[in-house]
Amino acid sequence: MQHNKLDITFLGTGTSSGVPMIACHCEVCSSTNIKDKRLRSSILIQTPQSSVVIDTTPDFRQQMLRAKNDRLDAVLFTHAHKDHIAGLDDVRAYNYFQKKTMKVFATEATQAELKREFYYAFGEQKYPGIPQLELHTINSQPFSINELSITPIRVWHYKLEVVAFRIGNFTYITDANKIDEEQKALIRGSSTIVVNALRKEKHISHFTLEEAIALIDELEIPNAYLTHISHQLGLHDEISQQLPEHIHLAYDGLKLSVDL
Fold it and tell me: Residue 138 — pLDDT band, cuts 50, 70, 90?
């Protein structure tokens, strides 16, 4: 890892059902191409000083093992849908080996859902081995984790407010289909963006492929990666050939290095 750079690992690039989807035998779900195998969407952000994950999916344990990640300083949550929070319990392995609580950054609304879903971690009576969590509230102000300065960006997942994040020149957006103009201003100037592109057909709460491309071009971001992909989008190799040169389909295990 280099100083003044973010090392990004795509832990998962699939939608809530993952790819392949249970009981589906379409050409995407039947594909033997490893790039068509998608766990639920999450990224790992690393520098020499910090290791941060955005969202803990139902596949979190598998993702951390696959990435061979032995250190984690904090978890950032975009929102409280199950495919983005279900793996939180497994941070207890980091509690054990690092001998400290895990910093968790989330909005008040997401914190309320975490306390409901993982009630045993927040109750007065705590039994041994439960995750040890230290909650920090995300509002509209930038915040820091070690040397990283993180700007929260509010986006819309239909009527649900979701948090996107900008760190230096890198912006990560998942589960969105609308962004207000004042929030777009926080994204402009990024060198690299990750944005959800569920499928080609219109969806109530996710950007389509066409909408994601239009957003990237509107914001004039030179390097873009698409994530939160469903089996309905198509085969990785075929869709990749249809994209503009500066836009790429992300895939599980993809690594990027982005200047801070």
Answer: very high
